[in-house]
Amino acid sequence: MISTISSTRFPQLLAQIHNNNKLKHFQFYCYAPIRNAPLSAVSTTNSTCVASNFENQIHEIERLCEQSNIEAAILLTEQLIKDGFSIPLQTLLLLLQCCAGSRSLASVQRAHYLITRSQPKTSTLVFSYLALIYYKLGGSTDARQLLDKMLQKPRPGNKRRETYEKVRELHREIREIGYVPDTRYVLQDIDKEAKEQSLMYHSERLAIAFGLISTPPGTTLRIMKNLRICGDCHNAVKLI
Q1: Which residues lie closer than 8 Å to 27 by C-beta, 6 or more apart?
Q2: CA separation for the pair 204, 227 (Å, rounded)
Q3: What region, left, alpha or beta, does residue 34 occupy, with left being phi > 0 and alpha being psi -120 to 50 degrees?
């Protein structure tokens, strides 16, 4: 599969993922213990014995992940899926985190396959996280292909694309009148271009862009945020 994401758009998307507050909270969720989580066995057989065995197998996958026994954890997960069981998403995320920690691109690819097999309706947040893992492990091609699939999903009635286009338009306009991105406010270890893209997609600017495309010209916009605005956004908003 050839990626349709341009070399310019690719770092923009990665910067958006880096800057996604939901993703930061989501990463903590990946580490959460699952031993006491309710488990539901979905199989062709609904006996109590099968359900109990399924729960034991799920806990065994968790134990193997804790011991960094990735191969055994993957094989057991594969077998459960083959037997017709739906693996809880949190178990799959624990496995993914274990694979990512090993810095094995091949293991991450296998975990990705298991997620799509067992949880085909997984949220875009999971795949955003996965794309970031691919990129950090040098799997740029995998990251691009995953982002391609995410962008190709239809979003009827959604102004997301139009909002981001407006943000870029505003960015070009304020650059022309002297705005210079202050990358000191980006703490992630990414290159300068990605830092500038990250600043451009801060939530305040997205909110302003959405407001501008959703209201008649001249409408007063009041943007409220429960966190302190960064210095770069403060400078940019004054120019907008």
Answers
A1: 129
A2: 10
A3: alpha
Instruction: Tell which wins on pLDDT, 118 or 149.
Output: 118
Residues 179 and 234: beta-carbon distance below 8 Å: no
240 residue type, one letter: I
Tokens of 80: 């459960």
The amino acid at 31:
Y
Domain shared by 82 and 103, yes or no: yes
CA-based Rg of the chain, rounded to a whole angstrom? 21
Residue 183 lies in a domain: yes
Q: What's the CA gap between 17 and 21, in Å, rounded?
A: 9
Closest CA to 64 of 110, 113, 88, 97: 97
**Which of 106-120, 145-159, 187-201 comes out lowest in average pLDDT?**
145-159
Residue after which a domain boundary falls, among 97, 120, 152:
152
Which of 94, 127, 152 terminates a domain? The answer is: 152
Number of CB atoms found within 10 A of residue 37's CB: 12
The predicted model scores a pTM of 0.53
- Distances from the Cα of 6 to the Cα of 18, 23, 213, angstroms: 18, 24, 25
**In sequence order, which residues have a C-beta less than 8 Å from that of residue 41 and are 6 or more positions away?**
50, 51, 54, 55, 85
CA 111 to chain centre: 15
Residue carrying structure tokens 């705005």 = 179
CA 215/CA 95 separation, integer angstroms: 45
199-221: burial string, b at 16+ Cβ within 10 Å, e else: bbbbebbbbbbbbbeeeeeeeee
**Is residue 210 assigned to a domain?**
yes
